[in-house]
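Table 4 source record.
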Amino acid sequence: MILFDSHAHIDDDCYDNDLQDVIDRAQNENVRGIMIVGIDINRSLKAVKIANTYKNIITSVGLHPHDANLCSKENLDTLVCVAKENSCVKAWGEIGLDFNRMFSPSKEQEDCFVKQLEIAGSLDLPLIFHERDSKGRFYDILNSEGPKSRKGVIHCFSGTKEELFRYLDLGYYIGITGILTLKKRGEYLRSIVSCIPEDRILIETDAPYLTPAPQKNKFRRNEPAFVKSVLIRLAEIRNTDPEILSQAVYNNTRTLYRVDF
């Protein structure tokens, strides 16, 4: 199998002491690409530093909805400069709406979301989306703001079948995490994941979060090597050869992020 972890946060402090080992383990599982997803300025800068150090690691930059209060023109201009000055920056995100934890007011989140959609469009960068409990507002904004040609991925999809088809109709990829492997939490996702066209699926770890089974029973911290478990479970559910599926998903990721490795 050939694998690409399309969404990871190995810039997190929990990897500071063993990052090389984490990357080595990923390579040993034939994870040939890793996208480190930015969530604020400092983390985006750290992600860029890692990507400029290691082969086949790329990054995004952006402001997570939890940090919408930081969405000043100065901060956005800083991220734009980082994106323009570093070839490893292949996407804008993680952006969107999160009305579950409400670390930022909904109006601030929506304003920050729209501003970043415009910036990504001006830079011609694909988007990495975060959505949680937005009660339709996330879709409404995507459907009304910007061109229909916009490219992006719905990170960590865990919505309804109706929402799935709405995102597919907008042309987006669907990111599948270790939730798929979890007995109770992943039950509904397993029931609809075969509805996703093969050419629109990405796999991801969201490391250090959402550790898949069976690793979840042994490791608290997720890492890119474990994306293999997501692919294997996905292939079982879709009743397809894992090697063939892995190649398709790998190619999807390369297409979205426009990389040639």
